[in-house]
Design brief:
Length: 213
């Protein structure tokens, strides 16, 4: 049996900087100690996919975990195309349906308490534009507290209705630490539930030393 302290750190790849604290919370909920993994943001889904294609067939004792948004596409199709037959066992891909913000919204009770809005008005984790709908709530909270957690584009027609403000990650980390519960959120999010199960299994195999043999 390999001691946990000697286990190679898992490498986790996410799309953006604001995904890092979310996935860190998910990893901890799945049984990973903070010293057992490192999270890297790749500045976009295309870069995560490029890294996944590079590593999918490379044998290594190091677990590698890739997190992608489905963005309205079929998660099964994404997994089939990105992790074809013959991929190594300790490379894992989890797809958020539809965006990682849907995992946050899935714990509606926590969202209601932290952002001080009625539970009935918390946006659903289901459907498109989870990020846009979540940021609309965060923006209202920020206005009430005179904080720039979310910004609107300077000009109309610049794509997304909201952008992350300079203090967004601060409020996000507070929400994750104080209220959000991954197991509770998983009840309302099938993709999060599957991700937790897969990450728990991967951790058990990594701790056993299976990938180091």
């Amino acid at each position: 049996m390999i001691m946990v302290s000697s286990m190679p750190k898992a490498l986790v790849y996410v799309e953006g900087a604001t995904d890092v604290p979310v996935i860190s919370a998910v990893m901890v909920a799945a049984g990973w100690e903070e010293e057992e993994y490192m999270v890297f943001h790749k500045k976009g889904g295309a870069e995560v996919k490029k890294e996944l294609r590079r590593q999918a067939h490379i044998s290594s004792p190091i677990p590698r975990i890739f997190i992608l948004d489905s963005d309205g596409k079929c998660p099964v199709d994404i997994r089939t195309s990105m992790l074809p037959e013959g991929s190594v066992e300790n490379v894992a891909l989890r797809v958020c349906d539809t965006e990682i913000e849907s995992w946050l919204l899935a714990d509606g009770a926590a969202f209601s308490r932290f952002f001080n809005i009625p539970l009935a008005k918390v946006e659903s984790p289901d459907g498109y534009n989870a990020k846009e709908r979540m940021l609309a709530c965060v923006e209202r909270y920020g206005r009430r507290n005179c904080q720039e957690f979310v910004r609107r584009p300077v000009k109309q027609g610049e794509g997304s209705a909201y952008r992350f403000g300079g203090r967004y990650r601060i409020i996000l980390e507070q929400f994750l630490q104080q209220e959000w519960n991954a197991e509770r959120a998983a009840v309302c999010s099938d993709s999060l539930s599957r991700a937790l199960q897969r990450l728990k299994e991967l951790h058990e195999r990594a701790v056993s030393g299976e990938f180091a043999r």
